[in-house]
Amino acid sequence: xxxxxxxxxxxxxxxxxxxxxxxxxxxxxxxxxxxxxxxxxxxxxxxxxxxxxxxxxxxxxxxxxxxxxxxxxxxxxxxxxxxxxxxxxxxxxxxxxxxxxxxxxxxxxxxxxxxxxxxxxxxxxxxx
Length: 128
Hints:
single chain, mainly alpha, 6 helices, DUF3054 domain-containing protein, transmembrane helix
């Protein structure tokens, strides 16, 4: 159960990212609108988790999946950030949602802060 906490934190932060974005454009932050904004990034996040576990397993063998630490900045946090960003933007484009360059830059910054930032903070606190 403890292994799912980092995944849950990531989901909450991606939902929060979507809420912030919708709120900044005076759009409804609950209901179908939020789901429409969340699903591309949520799918990218889920794919990132699959990739991160596969990378750990490939490097260290199948038993690595049991030892996998979802709190690691590298490579886990970076994989999750890139997968959420790239996957989210590709799915938004395919589904007819906007992917303006300014939005990509804002999303890249916020998702890095959220998905890598909390992991870095945990590592710093654990090192003390």
